[in-house]
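Kindly go through the following sequence and its backbone structure tokens. Advise at your convenience whether the structure tokens fit the sequence:

___
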Amino acid sequence: MEWSVPRKKIVQREGEGFGRRLAKLREEAGLSQKALGALVGLSPRMVAYYEGRSALPPGHVLAALGEAFGVSADELMGAKPTRAKPLHRNQRLWRRFAQIEKLPVRDRKELFSVIDAYLDRHRLTQRAG
């Protein structure tokens, strides 16, 4: 006797494959392909590739994309309808994060120590007040 695990049925709306859903989420979030790539560790070219394909990307990429948009992998794949979750991200801030990622490791560490000091100070003032 052979056992098999039932597969989830992926709901495909006409004209809306994985790539179209990904592009729609990215556009709704107000992100460029470059900005999304910086968030999830992909090149803008790979983001464009996944947006143009109907096949699904590897699992680790799906997980990173889902986390970036605040949706599940099922929602990204079309097994569940996507919940509208607007991202309220400061685009200027995210562009700066992308620039920070390009700095040498030593410079990033110095910058992080300054940021951590500000964050610690903020936490202390929040507790006191």
Observations:
- The two ends are 67 Å apart (CA to CA).
- The first helix runs from residue 18 to 28.
- Residues 90-129 form one domain.
- Confidence is low (pLDDT under 50) at residues 8-14.
